[in-house]
Amino acid sequence: MSSPLNIGMIGYGFMGRAHSNAYRQVSQFFSLKHKPVLKACCARKEDKIKAFAENWGYESYETDWRKLIARKDIDVIDIGSPNNTHKEIVLAAAKAGKMILCEKPLAMNVAEGEEMCDAVEKAGVANMVWFNYRRVPAISLAKQVVDEGRIGRPFHYRALYLQDWTIAADVPQGGAALWRLDVDVAGSGVTGDLLAHSIDTAEWLNGPIQRVSAATETFVKERVHAETGKVQKVGIDDACMFMAFFKNGSMGTFESTRYARGRKNFNTFELNGEAGSIYFDLEDPQYLQYFKYADPKTGAKIESHLTGWQKIHVTNGEHPYMKHWWVPGCTIGYEHTFTNALADFLESLETGKPVQPNFRTALQTQKVCDAVLASAKSGQWVEVG
Q: pLDDT-derived band of residue 219, with 50, 70 and 90 as boundaries?
């Protein structure tokens, strides 16, 4: 018999919808002890949050997150609100003994992230950060391939995350829709918004990043602020490129921009090793490309006339997460990554094994992001720490 887990969702935007969809789906596809209940959602604008609650089936709503946290009928606080709200909400939720799920990036900077980690660890509350791309079955398969030693000694890691939605100079900054362009709310631009995903995936697959050398650019220097109507300086980075060295000795290159005309959500990575390589493209997410050069068990080289890239269709029951969904050959999409992530969190409550990435893991990603921004400012190599 399932045990209800009452959800308090903060935010009604893109992530509020993605998370709410996962709460509604997970018990239909995964057999787990805990069943999420859409107990309450929260946002400042009553008309917006009321409509959101009615649409997604939340039992109630609040317009003050402090009241949501104080409610005794709430077990989990899910933070889908802008980056500058994360710390205060986390500290209050941890003090109240609530489980916490938080959108990425974890915080505005490392100092905030450390305070948040200390709070959840002192309170002993379950926590997770929604780096959902780990739960793309093809990316999880990539992790399996690496862990099985099929790549061998790694040499190169390269990642791209490209979009084009802010090219026009008349796009405003700030407000409910465009807070990601407001440095006071977002903390950074593509570094925290896009490269945080790339960094999390890279460290999951290839281990810790030790030092970075970065450059950033803001192409449109001033924009009208959506809330004040005044033209003001743009403080976020529109584009970022950095080189990295990993602890295992491999080299990495990372590039992200919102000024790549024609690219909507182009998120790729490639890892090259002594025994093989892997490549993934989020715009073709049901496939993992794998090049096998040598047998991981014997070290024997593959006969040259049989070498070549394999395009693995990651939809079989033996592939990560796929046994919970459809029959082989039927793909799943972006929204399912959140359901998979939530299922892992719920399973962790049963097993007692902390889910990944938790706050402490996400703090390491924050450290890389901060090091990247520091390097771009100084023009020097920066140690991550």
A: very high
> Would you tell me how many other CB atoms lie within 10 Å of the CB of residue 244?
25
Instruction: Give 282's DSSP letter.
Output: T
pLDDT in tens, 72-88: 999 999 999 999 999 99
**Chain centroid, CA 363 distance in Å:** 12
Apex 362 CA angle, 111 and 211, nearest 5 = 75
Residues comprising the chain, all counted: 385
Q: What is the CATH number assigned to the segment(s) 3-132?
A: 3.40.50.720
CATH number of 135-383: 3.30.360.10
206-219 exposure pattern, b = at least 16 Cβ within 10 A, e = fewer = bbebbbbbbebeee
Of 302-306, 324-328, 346-350, which range is least confident?
302-306
DSSP 193: I
Alpha helix locations (H) across the chain?
Answer: 14-29, 46-56, 65-70, 86-95, 110-123, 137-147, 175-178, 183-186, 190, 196-206, 334-351, 359-378
Query: What digits encode the pLDDT tens for the residues 94-135?
Result: 999 999 999 999 999 999 999 999 999 999 999 999 999 999
Give residue 299's region: left, alpha or beta (phi > 0; psi -120 to 50): left
DSSP per position, 130-156: --GGGGSHHHHHHHHHHHTTSS-SEEE
- The domain segmentation of the chain, as residue ranges, is 3-132, 135-383
